[in-house]
Write a structure and sequence with these properties.
The protein has two helices and eight strands; from the N terminus they run E-H-E-E-E-E-H-E-E-E. By secondary structure, the chain is an alpha/beta fold.
Length: 131
């Protein structure tokens, strides 16, 4: 038994069409697709973290229990790029102040400004970076 803590090796996203979803995230994150093995499509590993897409037989059942936050210098410009790639904004989360998007299969993710202190949460957990 080891005293070292567990490390996250990869994030795996279930997908109806893993190739299509991998292409979306590859373009969005600037990580090329590097492998296709069985039901998996893999993006290039960066900073020790892999991102893979696994063929799943069923559709996404509801809201994600976990999501990505992707950071950039201009969230509004990234929103336009996400939409051009086939994603969409989820307006039902606008009251929380976050820019919540969905990929082509409906997986939620947030676009936030770069820098850990730039989101500016209030006591209710609402963000205020969208203006």
């Amino acid at each position: 038994m080891t005293d070292l803590p567990l490390q996250i090796n990869a994030l795996i996203i279930d997908a109806a069409d893993p190739s299509r979803l991998a292409a979306f995230w590859s373009e969005l994150l600037g990580r090329p697709i590097v492998d296709r093995t069985g039901p998996y499509v893999w993006l290039r590993r960066e900073n020790g973290l892999g991102v893979g897409f696994q063929q799943a037989g069923e559709r996404k059942p509801g809201k994600n229990r976990m999501h990505f936050d992707v950071a950039c210098s201009d969230p509004a410009a990234e929103q336009q790029r996400v939409e051009a790639l086939g994603g969409r904004r989820l307006e039902e989360y606008a009251a929380g102040g976050f820019l919540v998007m969905a990929d082509p299969e409906g997986n939620e993710f947030c676009i936030i400004p770069e820098g850990s202190g730039s989101v500016g949460l209030d006591d209710q957990g609402h963000a205020h970076y969208l203006g």
